[in-house]
Amino acid sequence: MSSISERFVIHGGQRLHGTVNISGAKNAALGIIPAALLTDETCRIENIPDISDVKTMIRILEHIGATVERPEPGVLLINAANVRSDIPIQDDLTRRLRASYYLLGALLGRFGYAEVSMPGGCYFGIRPIDQHIKGFEALGATVTTEGAVIRAEAADLLGSSIYMDVVSVGATINLLLAAVRARGVTVIENAAREPHIVDLANFLNSMGADVRGAGTDVIKIHGVDKLHACCYSIIPDQIEAGTYMVAAAAAGGDVLVNNVIPKHLDSITGKLEECGIKVIENDESIRIMSDGSRPKAVRVKTMPHPGFPTDMQPQITTLLSVCKGTSSIVESVWDNRFKYVDQLRRMGANITVSGKLATVSGVSVLHGAPVDVDDLRAGAAMVIAGLMAEGTTVITNIKLVDRGYESLVEKLTALGADIRREQYEEE
Ligand code: EPZ
Asked: For ligand 1, which residues put their CB under 6 angstroms from it?
């Protein structure tokens, strides 16, 4: 049977020039939208990115009884007065979106009961949720699994001290969502420090929560009885911004990446400068200037924030595929995030992977080829590869890219790239 799919076609070699405006942060939106379930009053959330992961999250909220309106582009009004926690969330929704497990924290916090079937998302190795479960249990919940369904229930959520054995963005968010309504004080130690953790904490505080220390590795939450309506604007997307910074460095040109918080981009800025790329930081924008010459070889190691983000690893590796000399990239967050390297090899890259280490022997140029995408950031990397390659690159499975990049083709075209989206019949 055949079906209609979409692919990107890129004619490489065009320099990029102009300004690109960065959208709201995907991973902040995916925590903040379910946080609106914690009150029965209406929350107004602005700077929401128009991407498929957000649409899936909205469908999940509507499925359990929330009303979600979109009065203007980029704005959501969420009212969760009629939400119920005992409606099983359909597998096909949760399978599509890893962040669907934030419903566990939010519904547990609001109702003391939540059930969600196992989440999906991008696959880069085993993605355990033991730290989420350990945290819920520390708050007094009983967590059970039956087949693919996870249930968490607590007659009374009680504040507690929780030490996270690994730094986990998802577990930190889930515990924040539950703990804001627990009785007493919760302390999360070894918490994740990503900008979107701070954004979620700010959103919760604007609803009347008492969360302190977000952005450090110790977060203290004084539980409150009730949360209320609020109006909040989401931070710009750190990874979307980083992707355009690397794209400009890779294709060459002069690009102003606008509407960003430069501090969130320090690790990316630093690495690009080490590669020999000129980066100028302004208050709310970053300018990338590159004459298109090959980057210097560097060493990269992904780490939780403020380290170099794993979600930028495929993009920087792609830039380094044409470095002068030999670069090394250590992926220390995920077990299996180098699968895209096979696709880069098809374009002429010389990269060997051994466990969590990739060794890149820079080649002088990449050549366009048909390539496939198997996760969101690998997709962004293939787009960058296509922009810098000689000839034509055709990228399939781009629905994974649509999960996290708003108007990618339009934004790149405005910068002068030769990229189009086209439909084709897939066998
Ligand atoms: C978030 O995933 C992001 N997703 C990911 O971005 C990102 O790659 C990741 O954080 C790391 O920065 C969203 O925010 C929706 P983790 P998450 O829990 O929360 C281990 C993208 O491209 N771990 O911080 O699932 C885990 O195996 C996406 O936008 C446990 O051992 O990541 C991993 O090695 C893809 N037990 C490490 O911690 C747990 O209970 C970090 O995972 C939880 C995690």
From this structure: 26-27, 30, 98-99, 122, 127-132, 166, 168-171, 192, 310-311, 333-334, 376-377, 404
* Residue 302 DSSP one-character state: B
Domains of the chain, each with CATH number or no CATH: 3-23+236-426 (3.65.10.10), 26-233 (3.65.10.10)
Res 147: pLDDT: 80
Residue 168 CA to ligand 1 center (angstroms) comes to 6
On whether the pTM is more than 0.90, the answer is yes
Q: What is the pLDDT of residue 71?
A: 98
Q: Which atom of ligand 1 is nearest to the CA of 133?
A: 40
**DSSP state string for 363-398:** -S--B--EEE--SHHHHHHHHHHHHHSBSEEEEE-T
Predicted pLDDT of residue 117: 83
E strand intervals along 97-197: 113-117, 142-146, 149-153, 161-163, 185-189
Report the pLDDT value the prediction gives residue 89, as an integer from 0 to 100: 73
- Is 230 tagged catalytic? no
Coil/strand/helix, residue 336: coil
CB atoms inside a 10 Å sphere around CB 148: 12
Query: Strand 161-163's sheet: what is its strand order?
Result: 161-163, 185-189, 218-222, 210-212
CB atoms within 10 A of CB 155: 9
Q: Which residue stretches of the chain have pLDDT < 70?
A: 1, 119-126
For 68-107, how does the pLDDT look when each residue is reduced to its tens digit (9 = 90+)?
A: 999 999 999 999 999 988 877 777 777 788 888 999 999 9
The pLDDT of residue 86: 81
Catalytic residue among 43, 122, 230, 323: 122
Q: Return the sign of the alpha-carbon dihedral for residues 349, 303, 283, 204.
A: positive
Residue of minimum CA distance from atom 8 in ligand 1: 311
Return the ligand 1 atom nearest residue 131 CA. Answer: 40
